[in-house]
């Protein structure tokens, strides 16, 4: 058996996230089906984490073992011939036997894009959160650093603990090394890098920062919300999936 590492990019708009779900199109199901058609083998590629419905990826990583003798470079071509245009395999590599897309991951980076212009161009609508309303962007930028470090992020996680992005994780403690906002033309962009992320964690962070920008919260409230370790203590809404991207996974 050969262990393969797949790097994929996808537009998640029309998919119900990464994980296989009966009767619904998912990224994992599409990749598994394409591999079956090419190799004749029934496998379930494991992703670095579960992206939610509507979330995009620039470099999601998946892994699985195959008995096929097809060269890795040929798999790239064959998979992209079969997969829908919204999913592209950017690279296939043979990996050591112990490599696992999720268990071997050491850090991930996500990006969230908010379009601030009055009118969102239709070609961007699927890939940003359109929020043209007044915001104190300087306050948002100043507050971003408040989540850097090791914290229990229960207050920023979805209330369904069984859906943590990292299966089997018994703690909601994560370490964030980068948390910053910046302006890029008409977009306000959030970049966050961490040891791992809980279900809805990035989207809840964005929703909370937006309340800082609206003046409903102060930067100092972030520490109080973190210390509460309770999602109900955080008034921030979960930001829409359309603006979120998995940028990279580090091993």
Description:
- By secondary structure, this protein is α+β, with helices and mostly antiparallel strands.
- It has 2 domains: 2-95, Alpha-Beta Plaits; 107-250, Alpha-Beta Plaits.
- Helices cover 21% and strands 29% of the residues.
- It has 5 helices and 10 strands.
- Strands 1, 2, 3, 4, 5, 6, 7, 8, 9 and 10 form a 10-stranded mixed β-sheet that branches.
- A hairpin with a 2-residue loop joins strand 8 (173-184) and strand 9 (187-194).
- The radius of gyration is 19 Å and the shape is globular.
- The two termini are 22 Å apart.
- 37% of the residues are buried.
- Residues 164-168 have low confidence and may be disordered.
Question: What's the helix and strand layout?
Answer:
Layout: E1 2-10, H1 27-39, E2 46-47, E3 56-66, H2 72-82, E4 87-95, E5 107-115, E6 129-130, H3 137-143, E7 149-152, E8 173-184, E9 187-194, H4 201-214, H5 221-228, E10 244-250
Weakly predicted, low-confidence segments:
164-168
CATH class of the largest domain: Alpha Beta
Structural class: alpha+beta
Order of helices and strands: EHEEHEEEHEEEHHE
Give structural attributes.
ten-stranded mixed β-sheet, alpha+beta, Alpha-Beta Plaits, globular, 21% helix, 251 residues
């Amino acid at each position: 058996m050969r262990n393969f590492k797949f790097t994929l990019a996808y537009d998640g708009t029309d998919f119900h996230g990464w994980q296989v779900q009966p009767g619904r199109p998912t990224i994992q199901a599409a990749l598994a089906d394409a591999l079956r058609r090419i190799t004749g083998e029934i496998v379930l590629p494991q992703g670095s984490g579960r992206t939610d419905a509507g979330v995009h990826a620039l470099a999601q990583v998946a892994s699985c073992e195959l008995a096929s003798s097809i060269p890795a470079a040929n798999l790239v071509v064959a998979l992209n011939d079969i997969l829908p245009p919204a999913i592209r395999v950017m690279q296939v590599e043979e990996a050591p036997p112990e490599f696992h897309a999720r268990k071997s991951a050491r850090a991930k980076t996500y990006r969230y894009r908010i379009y601030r212009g009055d009118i969102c161009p239709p070609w961007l609508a699927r890939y940003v959160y359109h929020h043209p309303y007044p915001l104190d962007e300087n306050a948002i930028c100043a507050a971003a650093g408040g989540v850097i470090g090791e914290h229990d992020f229960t207050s920023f996680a979805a209330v369904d603990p069984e859906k943590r992005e990292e299966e089997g994780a018994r703690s909601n403690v994560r370490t964030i090394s980068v948390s910053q906002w910046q302006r890029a033309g008409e977009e306000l962009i959030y970049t966050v890098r961490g040891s791992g992320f809980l279900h809805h964690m990035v989207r809840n962070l964005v929703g909370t920062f937006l309340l800082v920008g609206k003046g409903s919260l102060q930067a100092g409230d972030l520490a109080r919300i973190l210390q509460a370790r309770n999602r109900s203590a955080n008034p921030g809404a979960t930001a829409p999936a359309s603006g979120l991207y998995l940028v990279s996974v580090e091993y």
